Amino acid sequence: MKILIVEDEPAMVELLRYNLESEGFDVASAPDGEEGMLAIEEQSPDLVLLDWMLPKVSGIELCRRLRRNQKFKALPVIMITARGEETDRVRGLDVGADDYVSKPFSPAELMARIRAVLRRGNPDIGSDVLTISDVNMDLVGYKVTRGSRAVHLGPTEFKLLRFFMERPGRVLSREQLLDGVWGQNVYVEDRTVDVHIRRLRKVLNETGEPDLIRTVRAVGYCFEKPSN
Ligand code: CA
Q1: Which of residues 106 and 49 earns the better pLDDT score?
Q2: Which one in 43, 65, 151, 213 has a CA-CA gap of 20 to 30 Å to 77?
């Protein structure tokens, strides 16, 4: 899971980075709202820690922009602020932040909130079994079923399916899938993703089940329950 910190105080970034990395998260950071938006587009984080007072584009404005954006409207956002007033809290949640912490906060409190927000997007996060629609993934036993049927996946398709199922309903770019499944330092062509998606679809839908992988033109793919 990758977390993006958008914060202009270097000491705060370092503190957050240290705590997040020791909890096993990948961390990226941006020093202002403009860079923050670019980092979100380029790196597609799983959650954004967003400071309220930022140079160029404020945290509130950035959050508002994300919520208006088809691709990022479901991206989890936790606002961080020095103010603790209830009206600010309401305003933060009003523009679509998922949660809110006031400085000073304890790292333990922030971690608990991050986990809670991530779990809201996917209640299975941190558990050994992922379930979406009729697809079940046993991460420990390395078994996948669709309905009552066993699905046999190669290692790459297994990782790909896991990456999707941990992020249900989110539009994932080919680049994000490459980074998440193949790793950031591996050179793989974009169309390799398409090849593996095709294989994954083939085995998942082998007996005519509805396709859970939606192709989002010019963007990437989204794994979700069929909408009917
Ligand atoms: Ca600030």
Answers
A1: 49
A2: 213
Q: For residue range 134-145, list pLDDT tens digits in order.
A: 999 999 899 999
Strands 149-151 and 143-146: antiparallel
Query: Which residue do the tokens 């993703």 mark?
Result: 193
pLDDT averaged over the chain?
88
Cα–ligand 1 centroid distance for 50 (angstroms) = 9
Residue the block writes with tokens 């608990």: 112
Tokens of 140: 């420990």
What pLDDT, on a 0 to 100 scale, did the predictor assign at position 84? 60
Instruction: Supply the pLDDT for residue 82.
Output: 74
Query: Which domains does the chain possess?
Result: 2-121 (3.40.50.2300), 129-223 (1.10.10.10)
What is the bridge-based pairing of β-strands 47-51 and 77-81? Answer: parallel
Question: Which residues have beta carbons under 5 A from ligand 1 (an ion)?
Answer: 8, 51, 53
Q: How far is CA 39 from the centre of its chain?
A: 13
What separation in Å is there between the alpha carbon of 5 and the centre of ligand 1? 11
Between CA 37 and CA 48, with CA 43 as vertex, the angle to 5 degrees is 60
Predicted pLDDT of residue 51: 92
Residue 66 burial (CB count, 10 A) = 22
CA quadruple 41, 125, 110, 185: dihedral positive or negative? negative
